[in-house]
Amino acid sequence: MGSRRGVVSQVGSGSVRVARFCRALFATAAVAAVLGACALVDPVDPRYDTVNRSLSKARNESILLNIIRASHEWPLSFTTVPQVNPSMTNQTQVALPNFLVGPSYKPPVVGALAGLPDQTGYSLPSISPFRDVIFGNNVLNNSTQVSSNFSVSSLETGTFYNGLLTPVSLHDLNYFIRQGYSRELLFWLFADTVEVQIGGRIIGFQYNPPDDYGCPEREPKQRCFREFVEIATLAGLSVEAKTVKPGSGKSSSTDGIATDGAASGKSGGGSGGGAKGSTEYSRFCFNPVLAERGRKAMDPARFEVVRARYLDSFKPTPVCGTPWNPGQTEEESTDTLQFNVGPLKFKILTRSTNSIYQFLGKVLKEQIRVKLEEAGTLPPEPRAYLPPGREDERLPILSTTRDDFQLLHIVPAAGQACFVHTYFIDGDYCVPERGSSNTKRIFSLLAELLALKTQASELAITPAVRVIQ
User: Fold this and answer.
1) If you ran DSSP here, which 8-state letter would residue 330 be given?
2) Is the peptide bond preceding residue 209 cis, with omega within 30 degrees of 0?
3) N or C end of the chain, less CB within 10 A?
4) Ramachandran bin of 39, using left for φ above 0, alpha for ψ from -120 to 50, beta for the remaining angles
5) What percentage of the chain carries pLDDT values higher than 90?
């Protein structure tokens, strides 16, 4: 009898210990649930930052992919993401589990009291479960669902392509000069052809590799397209604008000569802008302040070469800020940009946004060809004329951006840190993080140009593909 009481006492004390353990466990779970609920309050800043970085990466990869497409003569493709709706749901369930307390207890049988040898009086289970506590599999669970719903609009409309294929105007050039972009960089991107008229003779300069490196054989001073870009930079070539009010015959200048020699406003030739009913005209002019900045920015050794061999002695005109009558001269036309420098008459045909992509594609293709020839994996091919000792004219070189002299820097991806990276049919492409300042500026400029050519109506969700991740 005493033995049986001892067993019962041990079972009872074990049950108390298990009960205390369970109470502590439940208290801990309750506290964890409360703290978990506090931690699951969704903050805005990390998700906003994630979306911001993701969209920026997607935009840069799209620009790089279109440049690569142009280098392979593939059609360009433009899309945009007008809206992103990130969402997250979290569901946590906490409940009492199924459990057994203490060892399995079985009351004594009658045979044990009768003294039968084959009866023990107490027995433990011989099969599972034999546990102090048994938790169920559906009483403590958590489920989290994160999704980002975004609309991808294909920019395949007549309005968009009208803007994409329209040549850059003085108004556009004016915009970007005022943003602090290098004028040498802008002239390389925006100027497709430079025609110089001396008397009745016209000489054309166009950088169009590998057919033309912008070095005409009949140019008396052996000047190339690069030199005319440098001369324009050193001479302070810029843009100024004036607004003409209807019926007044008067104009108000919007030129900012003291700061950057350019003005905001729409391009000349009858474009509307400014006050209601007024017309804004733009023209090329030469800004002495910008000319001095160009001289300071240019590499000193290169400046001496350009000044000694190419800069003419006469002073370029017109000077920004001098009187002019908007709407009266052909120099204000928007499709061909014209100006005079002494006895020379210049005419510049500008590129459109689409042709800027095509130009960069040709530069990339020539860049790859040059590297393959230098490595000996591609035999030299017949190419356009280059003056003796001017092999460096095969690729655009900038003289006023000292942090980066290459116009475009795109290389095969080889495990290096990339500003932007993408792939194409012939491998991976990378814009290196270092040594690609001008390429980064071009990406920013192309994104801005594309935004200027995109109407708000083209960002509707109707012609879109809904993607859910």
Assistant:
1) G
2) no
3) N
4) alpha
5) 25
Q: Which two tokens stand for residue 278?
A: 């007024």
Q: Which pair of structure tokens corresponds to residue 375? A: 């490595």
pLDDT range class, residue 187, cuts 50, 70, 90: very high
pLDDT tens digits for 96-116? 555 555 555 455 555 555 555
Answer whether 341's CB lies under 8 Å from 45's CB.
no
Question: Which token pair is 300?
Answer: 């000193």
For 79, phi and psi rounded to 5 degrees? -135, 165
Closest by CA position to 336, among listed 286, 396, 267 = 267
CA–CA distance, 102 with 391 (Å, rounded to integer) = 91
Q: What is the CA radius of gyration of the chain?
A: 38
Per-residue pLDDT of 269-319, as tens digits, reads: 334 444 566 777 888 889 999 999 999 999 888 888 888 777 666 677 888
Angle between helices 437-452 and 183-190 (to 10 degrees): 60
Instruction: Give residues with Cβ within 8 angstroms of 205, minimum separation 6.
Output: 193, 194, 195, 196, 214, 216, 219, 223, 224, 225, 228
Q: Which strands form 411-412's sheet, in the order they lie side by side?
A: 411-412, 427-432, 418-424
CA 200/CA 204 separation, integer angstroms: 13
Please list, residue by residue across 429-468, b when 16 or more beta carbons sit within 10 angstroms of its beta carbon and e when fewer do.
bbbbeeebbbbbbbbebbeebbeebbeeebbeeeebeeee
Is there a contact between 266 and 272 (Cβ–Cβ < 8 Å)?
yes
- Separation in Å, CA 183 to CA 92, 335, 409: 59, 20, 19
Binned at pLDDT 50, 70 and 90, residue 30 comes out as low
> Half-sphere exposure of 436 toward its Cβ, with a 13 Å CA cutoff?
18
| Residue appearing with tokens 């994160």 | 146
C-alpha to C-alpha distance for 217 and 386, rounded to whole angstroms: 8
Give the length of the chain.
469
The mean per-residue pLDDT over the stretch 61-74 comes to 95
CA distance 405 to 185: 10
How far is the C-alpha of 213 from the C-alpha of 226, rounded, in Å?
A: 9
* Residue recorded with tokens 């932007």: 420
Model confidence, pTM: 0.72
The pLDDT of 217-227, averaged and rounded, is 84
DSSP state of 99: -
pLDDT in tens, 422-435: 999 989 999 999 99
Q: Tokens 């001369």, residue?
A: 231
